[in-house]
Design brief:
It is a single chain. Helices cover 67% and strands 1% of the residues. The protein is mainly α and 466 residues long. The protein is globular, with a radius of gyration of 21 Å.
Length: 466
């Protein structure tokens, strides 16, 4: 059955394939050109991962671009296999991953560590997806430790920009101006009122961090912190040959078992973030169910685990990536859902909007004019991403605590995480929970100091606001 023939209240047509529901563009969903064009522009955010790969793995630009393109192609798997999301990075966990890989000397050992990390995360996700044990595993982690991990990730993101040798030393004026602009667009109460009054401001706000990145293209050359972009025409030239020869198991061989053992604590910390995104995906989609009764959107967390787990396993083999393969890009998920709510004429199916957006980002990665436009300020783009994420993670991390004792434990766990990594952070958190809560160390306490301030809707919309 083609997309035009969908009965009212039914799912968009698909080809059943076990736990998956295959949907192809133009056949099973209408191609949505507005979302495709927006994807062309938003690929600039995906390109920010290049800086992480060049800085921490020593990859040449063209090799890092190859990793970004491979990751981008795998983004398509979600909507093609029935997962109604716009996937993205595991952004809040990037500081955790950077801390982990920096424990190893740059070169083959660091690449081995990243491969082991991403492969372990992928295997864990698939196991939890197949067994349906994801929520049970996360429930075993005390709130104080969850709070500390998220809080530490947020602080680590900010520290990574302002530490000695960080990006702020290279772009002090550009980062200051552009992060102020980004915070105003994303978090300001004043701008929130403007968005409600004017469609232009609403559109600008829905673009997340992209306007701040485009501002950096102009500001950085004006203040002498980067060159004006040398716009080139044609297609980008990713270097897949060097990637596979020098940065994957095909050229380096398989990592030793010791790398996997060392990765386990950091992988568990990262999975806490991943599971939070899964919960937020379900909550965001439930908002649209009330408005769009004409289409049933089926979100299955177990299927999502299989897809992003499989992406991480595959990327660990063909293009290990510090950003990892996450279940959702929350900012763009919100943008597409808001357009979906406007009705069938605006967006016939959510899969059409999500799929068209990711087809657009993939097209943009191959267009040299777009890549060359943002290349001089990719360090700024990454800095803006991490600073916004740092703000959100600190807020959510604090609100995860359920008592004053929880928050005290979280502060210690977060600080150790930033300085020493996930292994010691988990150990300190477990010890403190046992010492402070005794037999109730898993349950903790709730003195309602923080819980009455919680605003879940704000959390959903702020999470990964990039």
């Amino acid at each position: 059955m083609k997309w035009k023939n969908r009965p009212h209240g039914a799912e968009t047509p698909y080809i059943p394939a076990g736990p998956f529901k295959i949907r192809l563009p133009f056949i099973h969903y209408r191609f949505e050109w507005p979302d495709y064009v927006q994807g062309l522009l938003m690929c600039a955010v995906d390109l920010g991962a290049i800086t992480l790969l060049t800085d921490h793995l020593g990859m040449p630009f063209e090799v890092a671009l190859a990793v970004v393109i491979l990751n981008g192609l795998l983004y398509l798997l979600h909507h093609l296999l029935g997962d109604p999301v716009i996937p993205g990075w595991v952004t809040p966990a990037i500081p955790l991953i950077v801390l982990f890989v920096k424990q190893f000397p740059e070169g083959p050992d660091r690449v081995y560590a990243l491969i082991a990390f991403q492969l372990t995360l992928g295997i864990l996700s698939i196991i939890l997806g197949v067994t349906g044990l994801a929520s049970k595993v996360v429930s075993l982690v005390p709130d104080a430790i969850k709070s500390g991990i998220i809080l530490g990730a947020g602080i680590g993101a900010v520290v990574s920009i302002f530490e000695e040798g960080g990006k702020f030393e290279l772009f002090p004026y550009t980062i200051t101006i552009c992060i102020g602009f980004a915070f105003y667009l994303i978090f300001s109460k004043h701008f929130e009122r403007l968005k409600q009054k004017n469609k232009f401001w609403a559109l600008l706000g829905n673009l997340g961090i992209l306007p701040a990145i485009l501002l950096a293209v102009v500001v950085a050359p004006l203040v002498g912190e980067a060159k004006w972009p040398d716009i080139q025409w044609g297609f980008s030239k990713p270097d897949f040959a060097t990637l596979w020869a020098e940065y994957t198991v095909f050229g380096l061989g398989f990592p030793a078992f010791s790398f996997f053992v060392k990765a386990i604590p950091a992988v568990l910390a990262t999975y806490l973030v991943v599971f939070g995104d899964v919960l937020k995906t379900k909550a965001l989609l439930s908002e649209s169910d009330v408005v769009r009764t004409d289409e049933k959107v089926d979100y299955n967390p177990n299927r999502a685990h299989l897809i992003f787990g499989g992406r991480n396993i595959l990327m660990s083999m063909i293009g290990p990536d510090i950003t990892m393969c996450g279940p959702m890009w929350a900012a763009m998920q919100v943008v597409v859902i808001e357009r979906f709510k406007k009705g069938k004429k605006a967006m016939h199916s959510f899969f059409g909007g999500a799929g068209s957006f990711r087809w657009g980002t993939n097209t943009g990665l191959f267009l040299l004019p777009i890549v060359s436009l943002v290349q001089p300020i990719l360090g700024v783009a990454l800095s803006l991403t991490l600073l916004v994420q740092g703000y959100v993670s600190v807020r959510i991390g604090v609100m995860q605590a359920r008592s004053q004792r929880d928050l005290g434990i979280a502060g210690v766990v977060g600080a150790i995480l930033v300085v020493k990594g996930a292994t010691l952070a988990f150990a300190a958190g477990i010890l403190l929970c046992i010492l402070l809560y005794g037999k109730d160390f898993l349950r903790g306490e709730n003195d309602r100091i923080f819980t009455h301030h919680s605003n879940e809707e704000t959390e959903y919309k702020e999470k990964e606001a990039i």
